[in-house]
Design goal:
With about 55 residues, the chain is mainly alpha-helical. Helices cover about 80% and strands about 0% of the residues. The chain has one domain (about 1-50). The radius of gyration is 11 Å and the shape is elongated. The termini are far apart.
Amino acid sequence: MQTLFGLIVFALDIWAIASIINSSVDTTKKVLWILGVLLFPIIGFLVWYFAGPKAS
């Protein structure tokens, strides 16, 4: 069960990072968002999902 949860979190983080890279915000903000998602996988993803840059 933990493995499945880990894989889901990993997949969601990859999706978030891809969306951040494809967004139209400047590079500094992209790097900060990516670091947040990588350092805090669950909380970082949730914060990005509700407040982060969206792909345009």
